Amino acid sequence: MTNPHPTPPDATTPARPPRESDPTLPTPAAGPQPPPAPTDGAQTSQAPATDGAQLPQGPPAPAPAPAPADSLQLPQPPPAAADGARPPQGAPAPDRESRTGGPGGNPNPAEGRTLTTDPHPHPHPHPHQPPGLDAHLIVDRASFRLDITLTAAPGDVVALLGPNGAGKTTALRALAGLTPLTDGHLCLDGTSLDDTPPESRPVGVVFQDYLLFPHLTALDNVAFGPRCRGASKAEARSQAAAWLERMGLSAHAGVKPRRLSGGQAQRVALARALATRPRLLLLDEPLAALDARTRLEIRAQLRRRLAEFEAVSVLVTHDPLDAMVLADRLVVVEHGRVVQEGTPADIARHPRTDYIAQLVGLNLYRGQAAGHAVRLEAGPAITTTEELSGPVFVAFPPSAVTLFRDRPSGASARNLWRCEVAGLETRGDQIRADLTGELPLAADLTTVAAAELELYPGASVWATVKATQTHAYPA
Amino acid sequence: MTSLDKPGAATGPRTGRPRRRRVGTGGRRGVPLPLLLPGLLALAFLLLPLLALLVRAPWRSLPDQLTSTEVWQALQLSLVSATAATAVTLVLGVPLAWLLARTEFPGRGLVRALVTLPLVLPPVVGGVALLLALGRNGVIGQWLDSWFGITLPFTTTGVVVAEAFVAMPFLVISVEGTLRAADPRYEEAATTLGASRFTAFRRVTLPLIAPGIAAGSVLAWARALGEFGATITFAGNFPGRTQTMPLAVYLALQNDPEAAIALSLVLLVVSIAVLAGLRDRWMTTS
């Protein structure tokens, strides 16, 4: 991907204005950081729940965020990343496959292809010029406003996760320049793209249904980008052939898109986007058009290819599994705003909105903590093992809930609520019970247990959760 | 596609008769007379005149009729001018269709309506309007005449102008419809790959809408070939110069009906050939 051929998009990237000289400060272009963006991106994925004290506040309860945390949110050059925060680049994260090509090097190390790969590694970012993506996207629509901040270092894979209509695709289109920004800014590798038309941006897009040109062969689809960016016809085709070979599609080079399978089309689309050697790769629901079986396989392939890609990748998905498998960092968008940001593990452990809690399958409540007791906004109190004070979230999995038809006479009367069964649903070999009452919650129980309890919609039950199975963290 | 569909459609009801009786015979079962009779009448009404043309054709003298210089001149002129007019509508009409389909500008609805006006305008009126605009003393024509020495009325170029005027809406409407049906995101995809808007149009959109352009061209060509009113008004009726087939037919009918029939037969054959060329497009979709 870093290439020996100087192509126009690459040629523009190294030249960066010297203005962003201090890496610990927000970029001047960023202006005042919007307070709502949660800044727990600085949190490590291994961080235990007790890290809460230093956590900046999330959107629901704005409080003065500690100043250092603000700067941690920015992509850090390697020296600053030694503080335990997930390094945005350089040493690969433990949960990802190792990059044998070195930092940002050979996109396809295993195959050792030399045709388009660069012998020398990706130009290492200058310590005082934050490379990668720095965007504040504001798009106003008639009844909708998108206002999100996105930062990413080269090599990062960021997933925009959110429900339908949250504004993810609008954000992607704004990054590509297909939807104009109402306000905000967009910087890539230190170069402002605010006034750059989409055809001049070093941005590659894989569209949701791929949008392969139906009248062109797979090869000519991939050659389209290099051709438009000034390569001769023969050169563009040889580059395209190399990309198809890398994707394992050489045998299908002469085939029209309609004769490609879903997985093949996805790979051609990826090759077409990468063939322009973008510094920002955008993927809109990259796996949504695939059937379940292909999806599994393509997801693994795509994860590998994204890990190999040395510039910034941003993907949009509403599927939490896709997001967690493919991305290093999730940015959860709801109603046009970032509601949470962090590593997949962090978000799965500490959901901050009902939407995320549902995605990761947790019961989530907000409340006021005083020691081990948390007074929930939903009504009752809950006892937790963590000792906290102030606004907190409490989460526990549905499997941690135990149900009784009669009030249990045991000693543990804490975390005991009287509920009513609102609905029952089979999930694999489990039954998911939706409960209303003192505390609305979801409970998982085995089919046998459900039968013994004689559960039916409307049945009244007692639900209990052990304190050790709950998880409280500051809101 | 058609060759695959036809046998499938033909064998489908036969093989599936036991189970699909209701579906298979639904077309024939109980067709109401108030629909059947007028329908058949309409069919007869459309086909009988053509049959009459064949019945009364002077088959014996036909070879002589068709080899006469006048017929060849008219036929040649018709084909050349209709083709030239189609070329003009293509060069100007496709961009207009793109503007109408892909851009937003104030009064676009009105422009669309104006574009379709020649479709419903009596061609003679079109001819008069052309004369007033491009005639030797016309609004624009006087400048064309005095500055460039260009005279359009009563010339072969005038025939092309008149035919293009009448035929252009067919092409624009057809291409615009195809453009609207085509996914504009292909153009966006091309843009993200570095294509300017014109490159995206040329290399992506144009190939995608080629079938629509072809259909529109054939429509426009057929319309230009049959043009009578605007041509005779704007270009006159000079054999060899502006006398196209329809004019020749009309004129021949006054003094030599046999020649008129022969000329009509030629036009009929051309029309059937056009229809055959469009077979895949129209006859199988119904």
TrEMBL record, chain A:
GO terms for biological process: molybdate ion transport. Keywords: ATP-binding, Cell membrane, Ion transport, Iron, Iron transport, Membrane, Molybdenum, Nucleotide-binding, Transport. Residues 410-474 form the Mop domain. Gene3D superfamilies: 2.40.50.100, P-loop containing nucleotide triphosphate hydrolases. Residues 1-134 are annotated as: Disordered. Residues 130-360 form the ABC transporter domain. Residues 1-11, 25-38, 57-67 have a biased composition (Pro residues). One of its GO terms (molecular function) is ATP hydrolysis activity. InterPro entries: AAA+_ATPase (IPR003593), ABC_SmlMolc_Importer (IPR050093), ABC_transporter-like_ATP-bd (IPR003439), ABC_transporter-like_CS (IPR017871), ABC_transpr_FbpC (IPR015853), Mo/tungstate-bd_C_term_dom (IPR008995), Mop_domain (IPR004606), P-loop_NTPase (IPR027417). It comes from the Bacteria. The keyword Cell membrane applies. SUPFAM superfamilies: MOP-like (SSF50331), P-loop containing nucleoside triphosphate hydrolases (SSF52540). GO terms for cellular component: membrane. This is Molybdate transport system ATP-binding protein. It comes from Streptomyces echinatus.
Automatic annotation (TrEMBL), chain B:
The chain crosses the membrane at residues 30-55, 75-101, 113-135, 147-175, 204-222, 259-278. It is found in: Cell membrane. Its main location: membrane. Residues 1-26 are annotated as: Disordered. The keyword Ubl conjugation does not apply. Keywords: Cell membrane, Membrane, Molybdenum, Transmembrane, Transmembrane helix, Transport. Residues 75-276 form the ABC transmembrane type-1 domain. CDD domains: TM_PBP2. It is a multi-pass membrane protein. GO terms for cellular component: plasma membrane. Pfam families: BPD_transp_1. InterPro entries: MetI-like, MetI-like_sf, ModB_ABC, NifC_ABC_porter. It comes from the Bacteria. GO terms for molecular function: molybdate ion transmembrane transporter activity. Part of the binding-protein-dependent transport system for molybdenum; probably responsible for the translocation of the substrate across the membrane. Belongs to the binding-protein-dependent transport system permease family. CysTW subfamily. This is Molybdenum transport system permease. It comes from Streptomyces echinatus.
